[in-house]
Write a structure and sequence with these properties.
Chain lengths: ~170, ~550
C-alpha cells in the first residue's frame, strides 16, 4: 500500500515537474501547459529578469486640473529609499513591486492596443492615483502619467509612455 | 521564514487590498475571468479581506510551528497549510508577488510530503522533488537570459543595478567604474545558473561549489537588490540539492520518471512537428496554374486583386478582406517565398519583389493590370513591384505599410527585440516545441475556416525560419537606405494607416504620407487613417477589415 501511495505521489510530482520544465520558455506564448493550472500556482515561473531585463523605472506622476489651468506634475508614489534593514524586512518593497507590475502590465498593452482604459492594470492604477490624491484635491480634476526613466543611461531623458485623460472628481 | 516574513509584510500593507489599492479584489478579480467557475468562486472567497487577513495570520502561526515544533507530523501539517494558503494567496496578491513566493510554496509542499508520507521513501521523494525544482529554476533563469544580447554581453547587469526598483546606487556606480569586472560578475552568475542542473549529474563535485555560490548570490541580492525573501525561500532549496546530489547519483526513481517523461515529450513534439511541416508543405498552394485555369472570358472581365502578406504572416490573414472584396473582384493571395507550401528563400526586398514581379507580369498578361494590396512588409514589396512594373500594376493599396525610413537609430532596441524574438520562435519550433504555442487571441478574430491553417503554420518552424531570415535581410537593407528619397511611382495608391501605429510613433505617420506623396502624380491617390485600428486588427478584426474592404472597393472603382 505504501509503495502504491509513493508511486502515485511520485507520478503526480513528476507530471508537475515536466509541466514546469516545459513552461519556462523565453517566449511566454509557449506556456501552453499553464492553461491547465487552475489557479496559476502549480506551475511556477522561474524566468527572473529574463529574457528582457528590467532596465527602466516607471514613475507615476499626477497633476490637478482646475479652472486656472493644470498644476505642476508631481510624483504620486515615490519609490522607497534602500535601507539596510530591507535585506530582511521590506514591506514597502511590496508596494514598489506592485507599482512595477501594474505599470509593466499597462506598458505591455500600450503599444498594441488602442484602448488600455479597460485593462485591469490601468483601472487599478487609476483608482490608486485617485485614492492617493483624493485628500489633497476636493473639487479639481486630475490627470496622471506614467514616465519611463533609465537610470543607467544619463543621456536618456525620462519618456512619458502613458498620459491619462483628465479625470473628473477625485473620490476613490 | 519566507512565509512568515511575506505574510507579515502583507498584514502591514493591508490597505493595499482596500479600494484604491493595487490588490483591490473588486478590480483584480477581472484578471481571472478566464478561469473556471469553481476557481473563480474559490478566489472570490479568498479575495474577501477578512479571509485574506485570516490566511496571513494562519501563515505566520504555521511558520512559527514549523520553526519551533519538534513533532514531525505537526510540522508536516503546518507545512501543508503553508503550501495551501500560499497557493490561495498568490492569485490574491497577483501584483507585488515575486519568485520568492513561488519558491516558498514549492519548499513547503515538498516539506509537507516529506513529513507526512511514510519514511524514508517519502523524505527522499520530497528532497528529490525539491532538488529537481531547484535545477529547473536556476537552469531556466540562466538559459532564458541567453536569448537576450544584453545579458550575453553583460550590460543588462549594469542596467538592472542602475534602476531604483532593483538597483543600488553605490553598487551601480561601482559597476559603471569597473565595467569589465561587472561584466565578469554578470557572466559568472549566468554561467552558474546555466550549469546548476549539473549538480544532479556530477554529484558532490558540482553541488558543493554551485550551492555555496547560490547561497552567496542570494545573500548579496538581498542586500543589493532588496530581494529579502529570496534568500530564505531559495535558501531552503539548497540542502535538498546537496542531498540529492550526494545520494544514489542518477538512480532516483523520480529523476528517472522526470527525465524519461521529458524525453518522451520531446520525441512526440519532434514527430508531430515533422507531420505539421508535411501538412504545411502539401497544403493548398495558390499557383499561377489556378489563375490560368479560371481565365474564362467572364472572369477575365473582373479586376484581379493580389494580396501580399507581411513578415511572419500568412495569406489566410486576408480572410475577411477577401470575403469583402471577392463580390466585385477576383482575389489572389499567394504564399510568399519560404512561407507555407511556397519554395524558395525570402531575402532582401528587391529580390523578393523581383520574384513576385515575374508572377505579377504573368497575371497581368492574363487579366490586365492588377491591384496590389500589401500589409506591413507586403506593402513595401507592392511598392517595389509597382515601381519596376508600372505597366502590370493598376494601383497599390498600402495597409499600415513598412517603409525603408522606419529603421532609425532610436528604434534599434525594438528592432533588436524583434530579431531576438524571431530567433527564439525559430529555435523553439525547430526543437519540436511548436505544440506548446498557445492560440493567440487575434486568431479567434479570423474567419473560422482559416484558423486551423494559420495555427498550423504558426507552430511550424518553416514560418519562423523564413521570417527570421527575411527580417535580418530587410533590416540591413532598411538601415542602408533609410535616408534615400522615394522614387516617384506613376500608379495611383491608397495608403491606409492604423490609428495605434501613427499615434504610437508619429514618424510612422509621416512615412505613410511620404508613401502617398510618391504616388502624387496620380490624382486618384489618397490616404486615410482607420480610427481604433491596430496594425493587426486591420486584417484580423471583422468590422475593421470590412471598412478596409469598402475603401479598397471604392479605390478600385476610382482607378477603373
Amino acid at each position: 500500500m505504501t509503495r502504491v501511495l509513493i508511486w502515485v505521489v511520485r507520478s503526480a510530482v513528476g507530471l508537475v515537474l515536466v509541466a514546469t520544465a516545459f513552461s519556462q520558455n523565453p517566449i511566454r506564448s509557449f506556456d501552453r501547459p499553464r492553461k491547465y493550472d487552475p489557479l496559476g500556482v502549480i506551475i511556477p515561473n522561474w524566468r527572473f529578469f529574463a529574457p528582457v531585463p528590467a532596465t527602466a523605472d516607471y514613475h507615476v506622476l499626477h497633476r490637478m486640473v482646475t479652472d486656472e489651468g493644470p498644476t505642476e506634475w508631481q510624483e504620486t508614489f515615490p519609490l522607497s529609499h534602500r535601507r539596510a534593514r530591507q535585506a530582511t524586512w521590506a514591506p514597502e518593497r511590496r508596494r514598489d513591486k506592485s507599482l512595477f507590475d501594474v505599470t509593466a502590465e499597462i506598458m505591455s498593452d500600450v503599444e498594441g492596443r488602442s484602448d488600455v482604459s479597460r485593462q485591469v492594470g490601468y483601472r487599478l492604477l487609476e483608482a490608486a492615483v485617485r485614492r492617493a490624491v483624493g485628500s489633497r484635491a476636493h473639487d479639481s480634476s486630475i490627470q496622471f502619467a506614467v514616465v519611463e526613466a533609465r537610470g543607467g543611461e544619463p543621456s536618456a531623458a525620462p519618456r512619458p509612455v502613458l498620459i491619462s485623460p483628465v479625470l473628473k472628481g477625485t473620490a476613490p | 521564514m519566507a512565509h512568515v516574513i511575506a505574510s507579515a509584510e502583507h498584514l502591514v500593507n493591508s490597505s493595499d487590498t482596500r479600494r484604491g489599492g493595487f490588490n483591490d479584489w473588486a478590480v483584480l478579480r477581472a484578471a481571472h475571468a478566464h478561469r473556471s467557475r469553481f476557481a473563480r468562486r474559490a478566489l472570490d472567497i479568498v479575495g474577501n479581506r477578512r479571509v485574506t487577513s485570516c490566511l496571513h495570520v494562519g501563515r505566520v502561526l504555521a511558520g512559527a510551528v514549523v520553526v519551533m515544533s519538534r513533532r514531525p507530523r505537526l510540522r508536516g501539517a503546518a507545512d501543508g497549510f503553508l503550501a495551501l494558503a500560499s497557493a490561495a494567496l498568490l492569485p490574491r496578491h497577483a501584483l507585488g508577488s515575486d519568485g520568492s513566493d513561488h519558491a516558498a510554496l514549492q519548499a513547503s509542499f515538498a516539506a509537507a510530503l516529506g513529513r507526512l508520507l511514510p519514511a524514508p521513501r517519502g523524505r527522499e521523494l520530497a528532497l528529490e522533488a525539491l532538488a529537481l525544482q531547484a535545477c529547473i529554476a536556476y537552469g531556466t533563469a540562466g538559459w532564458v537570459k541567453l536569448f537576450h544580447a544584453r545579458w550575453r554581453d553583460g550590460t543588462a547587469f549594469r542596467s538592472v543595478l542602475s534602476t531604483a526598483a532593483y538597483g543600488h546606487p553605490a553598487v551601480a556606480s561601482w559597476a559603471a567604474k569597473f565595467p569589465r569586472t561587472a561584466k565578469a560578475v554578470a557572466l559568472a552568475v549566468l554561467t552558474g545558473e546555466c550549469l546548476f542542473p549539473l549538480t544532479l549529474v556530477l554529484g558532490r563535485t558540482a553541488s558543493v561549489p554551485l550551492t555555496a555560490g547560490a547561497a552567496c548570490f542570494h545573500a548579496l541580492t538581498a542586500g543589493v537588490m532588496g530581494l529579502n525573501r529570496f534568500a530564505t525561500a531559495f535558501g531552503s532549496f539548497l540542502p535538498a540539492v546537496h542531498f540529492a546530489a550526494s545520494s544514489r547519483r542518477g538512480r532516483d526513481p523520480l529523476r528517472m520518471v522526470f527525465l524519461a517523461s521529458c524525453a518522451v515529450v520531446l520525441s512526440v513534439g519532434a514527430v508531430s512537428g515533422a507531420h505539421r511541416t508535411a501538412q504545411v508543405r502539401h497544403g493548398h498552394a495558390l499557383e499561377m496554374g489556378a489563375l490560368k485555369r479560371s481565365a474564362t472570358p467572364e472572369l477575365a472581365r473582373r479586376p484581379l486583386v493580389v494580396l501580399l502578406h507581411g513578415l511572419a504572416s500568412t495569406p489566410e490573414h486576408f480572410g475577411w478582406l477577401m470575403e469583402g472584396i471577392s463580390a466585385r473582384a477576383e482575389c489572389w493571395a499567394p504564399y510568399r517565398a519560404g512561407y507555407g507550401p511556397s519554395d524558395g528563400h525570402s531575402g532582401p526586398t528587391r529580390e523578393s519583389a523581383a520574384g513576385l514581379g515575374e508572377i505579377i507580369d504573368e497575371a497581368a498578361t492574363l487579366r490586365g493590370p492588377v491591384l496590389l494590396v500589401g500589409h506591413s512588409l507586403g506593402g513595401w514589396l507592392a511598392r517595389l513591384i509597382a515601381e519596376t512594373r508600372p505597366h502590370a500594376v493598376a494601383g497599390v493599396v498600402y495597409l499600415d505599410s513598412s517603409h525603408s525610413g522606419q529603421s532609425t537609430p532610436d528604434r534599434t532596441a525594438s528592432e533588436d527585440f524583434l530579431t531576438e524574438r524571431l530567433f527564439a520562435m525559430r529555435f523553439l519550433t525547430r526543437l519540436g516545441l511548436g505544440w506548446l504555442l498557445e492560440r493567440p487571441e487575434w486568431l479567434e478574430g479570423l474567419p473560422v475556416g482559416v484558423q486551423e491553417s494559420v495555427m498550423r503554420q504558426m507552430r511550424d518552424a518553416r514560418l519562423w525560419s523564413t521570417a527570421h531570415r527575411e527580417w535580418r535581410a530587410v533590416r540591413r537593407e532598411f538601415r542602408a537606405t533609410r535616408d534615400a528619397q522615394l522614387a516617384p511611382c506613376p500608379v495611383p495608391a491608397l495608403v491606409v494607416s492604423a490609428e495605434s501605429t501613427t499615434r504610437g510613433d508619429a514618424r510612422q505617420g509621416e512615412l505613410h504620407l511620404e508613401l502617398a506623396r510618391a504616388h502624387a502624380m496620380s490624382e486618384a491617390t489618397m490616404s486615410c487613417c482607420i480610427r481604433g485600428a491596430t496594425h493587426d486588427s486591420l486584417l484580423t478584426d471583422q468590422v475593421t477589415a470590412s471598412r478596409v474592404s469598402s475603401l479598397i472597393l471604392d479605390f478600385l472603382r476610382t482607378i477603373r
